[in-house]
Write a structure and sequence with these properties.
With 391 residues, this protein is mainly alpha-helical. 67% of the residues lie in helices and 5% in strands. The protein has helices at residues 2-21, 23-47, 66-76, 86-94, 108-114, 129-159, 167-174, 195-223, 226-232, 237-266, 275-299, 303-320, 332-338, 342-355, 364-384; strands spanning 55-60, 80-83, 100-104, 121-124. It has a 4-stranded mixed beta sheet with strand order 2-1-3-4, sandwiched between helices.
Length: 391
Amino acid sequence: MTTFFRHAFILAAKDTQIFWRDRFGLVLAFLFPILFAFAFSHAVEDGGPPEAAPRLTVVAHEKHGVLREISAGLTASGWAVDERTRQEAVDAIENGEIEGFLLFPEDFGTSVATGGEVRIHVVVSGNHPAAEAVLQGVARAVGSRVETLALAARAVGALEPARPHDAEAMLEALRLPPLTSLEMTRMGQRRHNPANFTLPGYLTMFVFFAAALGAGAIVRERQTRTLERLLSTGVRAPSILAGKFLSGAGRGVAQLAVLWTVGVLGLSMDLGASPGAVVAVSLLFVLVSAAFGVMLAAMVDDLRSAATIGVFASLTLAPLGGCWWPLFIAPEWLQVIARLTPHGWANDAFNRLMLFGASASDVAPAMLALVVFASVFGAIALLRFRFSPPI
């Protein structure tokens, strides 16, 4: 076993030295992804429109009391409240000006003050399910606060049944918190550093690209019968295969170290709430890429074919796997296809961790999927790898 590892590390070190002397390989592995990340990060940052407060159309027959408190609370929470009549709101939907609105019925304030049933109606066009979800969320948030006030009104009414109660006066008397206090989260529209999704995408693309092109070196050694000569010196076949895998993995780790350092220091990139998970996903993707490179070398015999297939696989899997754009803005069918690629799992994990503050447990399925990809690629390489060209 000691001999196995010693031979594997010696061969990996030899291939690593060759890689560091290859100027074109260094440019492809390090300079290209850095240039792409800088260019597209600044393009997205400079080209994006200024972020405006989200607009919320409200139809309310009453303009005082509880509804005034609700409107003030929504405005304080970051919404631009647009009050209209019901007919104006309906016409705006039909004209495509708005996607939906909240309707507060005529007896809304009275129902709150008397402890009666309180309803908030969500009116939305059938073509905008996302708008419906947002409006329902706002309605539920407002309703939960209003329900607290209605329960208080019932309690006070039970104690003093003969005394009429005004909702606004009750707010002051009971010292309750403001009726509406919403914490707003913009799903898919948050203002993030563009590098948080551009650099991980190009990192996965170029790590995989370098590993795929590395398959050509293995094919070249098979064609020149260098691998056969290694076998004649006493180096066992598993050691040679392990050495090739380690050299590819070492190259990928070097890419990770350089690109993450440039991203954090040069692009002010945020690794999210779980930097360790970001590193873990990165390392797993390196293993997948190295295993793919060895598998590709095991399945082709011609140097030109290895280069062609490597470039084709890299440039095909990159857009399908979300390297060129965040997967969460892609159509659903593309998100399904992305699950068939290691790039898709890795980029989805990076987006969750670096854009939406996910934890390591949230991306555990993605990490498991990367382990499966690496295992399958490695198993195919073991079964198909040859140390001499076909006769």
